[in-house]
Design a protein that fits this description.
The complex is a heterodimer.
Chain A (H helix, E strand, L loop, with lengths): L1 H6 L23 H18 L10 E8 L13 H19 L4 E8 L2 E9 L2 H11 L10 H12 L7 E8 L10 H10 L2 E7 L5 H9 L4 E3 L3 H10 L14 E5 L2 E3 L11 E2 L12 E2 L2 E3 L6 E2 L4 E2 L6 E2 L2 H5 L2 H4 L6 E4 L22 E4 L6 E2 L1 H11 L3 H5 L15
Parallel strand pairs in A: 1-2, 1-4, 4-5, 5-6, 7-14
Antiparallel strand pairs in A: 2-3, 8-11, 9-10, 11-12, 13-14, 15-16, 16-17
Chain B lengths: L5 E10 L2 H9 L9 H18 L4 E7 L4 E5 L12 H4 L8 H20 L11 H18 L5 E10 L8 H13 L3 E6 L5 H10 L3 E3 L6 H9 L32 E5 L7
Parallel strand pairs in B: 1-2, 1-4, 4-5, 5-6
Antiparallel strand pairs in B: 2-3
Helix pairs in contact in B: 2-4, 2-8, 5-6, 6-7
The chains are: A alpha/beta, B alpha/beta.
Chain lengths: 404, 271
């Protein structure tokens, strides 16, 4: 945070001559340098990743959504609110995809009040329906930063200390109406180890910057919708664990899934624990996941058992987060001309003849990939097809046998 | 009709493990009276039928060998744009649709090459499936980018496998399976001999069909009946019931299957 302060504001720095980066090549076109810039932008995200840091895998995050007058503004199309909710839906999906054993809650703030619309939970579908229902709410009044942070803090401070506690605020308004001294709230957040990040939709606000600085969060103001999306996505990857987070072993259950139709075993249909209180008929069947400790039934995972408190997950849920622990090394950029072949260079995985000036080579299996595959492999697939094809190069995964 | 602009792409991953096919051919494991050649014949009929369903349908075949994976079709050097060379390569004269001739010839040639040249010094009874699946996903990723505006490409993967699972591939395979789930790609598995826990999970996660066929000699019939229809039409058919999937984790220290485990909170290990 220190150097960011010294850097000051953009308008205080020297005039940037952005056009000097672009140079004409031998043919007198600027196409090649434009290509180069596009190229670098594509790979930038890969380069930014840091290796070898402790990540907090179990996250507890509260999303605070501003529902004040300011969200009616139409600088984001169609309105700030509609655009925000659309992006947040995507965020929720990605969040649970990357952090399968984490939890999320939603708080809205308007009319100087804060309201918890969704409790902490691990079900992406429920959160998405909550977000969709917010579209019809009217935005009014002023938001209250202090009230929403207090509300989030009330729940988060009871969370176990091995998990991360986070708040992400999306703030459209430039003002906040608080009942007391916000410095006290900041101190409280700091004491409880809650990390607070804010995304501003309008302009930089001093108090927001302070909150984020004090609590180790990040504060950003969006430039446009694309930037907004990038900022949200940057909150999807788990943050580095703080030193105060203790590492401990967590007891987990791996329930069996039994299907309906086991009539010969004499199983009877029963109500699942998650729909016990609801009035609908959903959840009444003989299939479901049974808690290995107390045998109560649930219709989906991951969930915390309501009767014995055991965290229930399935093995694939854990496997999903492995790639954070063993990130794939970045491939080496090699110019095509340096590769000695008589025919065209082909991408190993998608078979396309590479036309770009560069190909990407995996350091382990020496296979070549095109740019598209390189990005796809690092961003989505997380394992190198070439390495996975050969016995010698897949050694590293040997010790991580999950289920056979 | 919007329906006409949807084309379906099928990626077939066929297991060509020499150890398993050698055993199957000599009849050591009892009822497996089928050779790799016969299996490839079935595969060719099946892929021709897939291409016949609609002229927009696309196909790729990948062979998963004991220590590598290669594309049987389309061949590398022409990179998918197979339409150009069709008339040159296809065997003409019998009035067969040129594309079928091309597909069959390429599969045959590439498979022959693989069998002749692919014999590394060490042979293993299990197959490196994750690599083949990862390649298939990259291929699908590329071909979905290439479709023109207004067109849609729905892709799926069919794995035909006989040999054993390779437990060391769990991580890679799971990464691939989650990617498939994210990209809405259905993974089906047609298992010839050994029940595969990994593939059961893969099919369950992506919503595909897992089938261990009871009679290997009827492979073609199973392929045509169960795996030819698109996933969108499957709910209209009476398909074999889903098998129970074992999702328990194995611990890192003893590899025992466990019901209740302890997980470290910072990196996820199950102990």
């Amino acid at each position: 945070m220190g150097d960011e302060d010294e850097k000051g504001y953009r308008w205080e720095t020297e005039y940037e001559k952005t056009w000097e980066v672009i140079e004409e090549d031998d043919d007198g076109t600027i196409q090649s340098s434009v290509d180069d810039i596009i190229h670098k932008a594509k790979r930038r995200r890969l380069m930014e990743k840091l290796g070898n840091i402790r990540l907090g895998m179990m996250r507890h995050l509260f999303l605070v959504i501003d529902l004040s007058d300011a969200m009616k503004d139409q600088d984001l199309k169609p309105t700030r609110l509609a655009s925000t909710l659309k992006l947040l839906e995507h965020f929720v999906e990605e969040y649970f995809d990357q952090n399968p054993i984490s939890q999320l809650g939603i708080i809205t703030t308007r009319n100087k009040r804060a309201e918890k619309v969704a409790e902490l939970g691990g079900n992406p579908r429920r959160h998405i329906t909550t977000l969709q229902s917010l579209v019809n709410k009217t935005c009014q009044g002023e938001p209250s930063l202090q009230n929403s942070l207090d509300l989030a803090n009330q729940t988060l401070r009871h969370m176990p200390s091995h998990a991360s506690r986070e708040v992400l605020v999306v703030l459209g308004s430039l003002t906040s109406c608080d009942p007391g001294d916000i410095s006290e709230t900041i101190q409280l957040l700091k004491d409880n180890n809650v990390r607070c990040s804010i995304i501003g939709l309008a302009a930089e606000v001093r108090v927001c910057k302070r909150i984020c600085q004090e609590t180790n969060g990040k504060y950003f103001v969006i430039l446009d919708e694309g930037h907004y999306k990038d900022l949200l996505i940057s909150h999807v990857t788990p943050p580095p664990a703080t030193s105060t987070t203790e590492s401990s072993l967590i007891k987990m259950g791996f329930p069996h899934h039994s299907l309906s139709g086991d009539k010969n075993k004499g199983e009877k249909a029963s109500m699942c624990m998650c729909h016990l209180d609801s009035k609908v008929n959903q959840g009444f069947s003989s299939s479901g996941y049974f808690c290995p400790q107390c045998k109560s039934k649930y219709c989906e995972l991951p969930i915390e058992c309501k009767s014995c408190g055991l965290t229930l997950v399935s093995a694939p849920h854990l496997a999903r987060s492995y790639h954070h622990l063993f990130p794939l090394e970045t491939f080496m950029e090699t110019p095509v001309s340096s590769i000695p072949t008589d025919s065209a260079v082909c991408c190993f995985s998608c078979q396309i003849a590479v036309e770009d000036p560069n190909v990407y080579q995996c350091g382990r299996c020496q296979q070549l990939y095109c740019l598209d595959c390189d990005l796809f492999i690092h961003e989505t697939l997380h394992s190198c097809p070439g390495c996975a094809c050969s016995r010698e190069t897949q050694e590293s995964s040997q010790q991580f046998v999950g289920l056979t | 009709m919007t329906e006409s602009s949807v084309s379906s792409q099928l990626i077939i991953i066929v297991d060509t493990n020499p150890v398993w096919w050698g055993q199957a051919d000599t009849g050591e494991s009892g009822q497996n009276q089928m050779s790799l050649a016969q299996c490839l014949e079935c595969l060719m009929v099946f892929s021709n039928s897939h291409l016949m369903m609609s002229h927009r349908n696309k196909l790729a075949v990948i062979a998963a060998h004991t220590d590598k994976s290669i594309f049987l079709y389309p061949k590398k050097d022409q990179g998918g744009t197979s339409a150009i060379n069709i008339s040159e390569e296809a065997d003409q004269g019998d009035g067969k649709y040129e594309l079928f001739g091309l597909v069959n010839n390429q599969i045959k040639n590439q498979a022959r090459e693989l069998v002749i040249n692919g014999g590394s010094s060490l042979l293993y009874p299990d197959t490196v499936l994750a690599g083949a699946l990862a390649m298939a996903l990259c291929y699908i990723h590329r071909s979905e980018k290439e479709v023109g505006p207004g067109e849609q490409l729905s892709s799926r993967v069919l794995i035909i496998k006989g040999s054993e699972d390779n437990p060391e591939q769990y991580m890679n395979l799971m990464n691939a399976v989650f990617t498939a789930q994210k990209q809405n790609i259905v993974v089906d598995a047609c298992v010839l001999d050994n029940d595969s826990g990994l593939l059961q999970q893969a099919c369950d996660i992506t919503g595909g069909i897992y089938l261990k066929i009871p009679q290997v000699s009827g492979l073609l019939q199973y392929l045509l009946w169960i795996f030819l229809p698109d996933p969108t039409e499957r709910h209209k058919l009476t398909l074999p019931p889903k098998a129970q999937v074992d999702y328990r984790a194995a611990c890192f220290c003893h590899r025992n299957l466990i019901d209740i485990g302890y997980q470290s909170s910072i990196p996820s290990f199950v102990a």
